User: What shape does this take?
Amino acid sequence: MSVDQHEQVSFVYDPDTGYRGIIAIHSTILGPALGGTRFWNYASEDEALTDVLRLSRGMTYKAAIAGLDLGGGKSVIVGDNKTMDRERILRAHGRHVEAMGGRYITAEDVGTSMSDMEFVRQETDHVVGLKGRSGDPSPVTAFGVYRGMKACAQFRYGDDSLVGKIVAVQGVGHVGYCLCKLLHEEGATLVVADIDHEKVDRVVKEFGAKAIRDDEIYGVAADIFAPCALGAVINDDSLKVLKVDIVAGGANNQLAEDRHGDALDARGVIYAPDYVNNGGGLINVNAELAGWTLEQAHQKTSEIYGTVLGVLEIARDEGIPSYRAARRLARRRLEDVKQKAGTPRKSRKLVKSGRGV
Ligand code: NAD
Assistant: This one.
């Protein structure tokens, strides 16, 4: 925990349901920690712990960069999300979230959906991204990714048009599908891969995408690579074959290690740091807490264009990789708030209507 200065990590095993969950709170400097619940069949609890620690740290930076009064946290449920009894598992998770006393607020993530959050809500009020409120954050996340991708194009080509650009999208689930829609509407050419072939068929049919095998996506001839599946996809193996000008996607923790961000930079590949580019979902769920309209959330998400461009300009001017420039900006806000704001609000009491108070 001390390596990245996590504040709290909670493990719960519930023998009645088979629930195994970890909640990691990285920081509550800016406010209560918010981050989704990932339900994934991890090979081991060590792997799950590594994931939740990395993801929760990313949430701290994501909120800091987006200017939100939220801290960083995340949770993982270990198990097969296709075979386990969802209601019992997610209600056990809801009790775990409730036990954090408002220091952690959850939402959907990979392997969980809006309807799963209704199960969580039966046990706790500390859940957002609900039906009839801010809803599924994925379309807004995708819109932010699209805006960030355009900022990268502006920086790289001097023109932010994506017409005719070949974009390789890895993962066409919630975010990837919505991103493909926006790119298709603008006139980009899509090359897609997903381990779920039904999802691939849908974007082929609806947006004329070209489908390739999931192991071919890194080496495909494209202008832009958009990782929208899982993390650590910019790694020693993918770097051997990657040929694109820009990496800009929605997945969290795209760099396996910092040195892979250095390698992208050394090759002149423009990289939109993941937590800057994919902040739209967090902005959208924050609307539920801050009382924003969905239009306000959309407008704020649109600003990701300027934030990504700003990060790329700082990186260029200071001769550092973009991931370092983004981290510096995020840490600066955390330090400023720590020094100026006095005692931060560590938890947020939610009333039954779901509005933040
Ligand atoms: P999702 O589960 O709906 O979609 C992920 C897709 O990736 C699935 O279709 C899955 O089959 C596919 N996939 C998994 N491994 C793959 C592989 N090796 N190759 C190709 N495809 C593979 O999840 P999502 O909500 O779309 O999220 C995607 C990514 O974006 C995740 O990293 C998530 O943490 C991040 N993210 C999502 C949001 C959001 O609002 N949903 C917000 C911020 C960040």
About this structure: The chain has two domains: 8-121, 138-320. The mean pLDDT is 93.
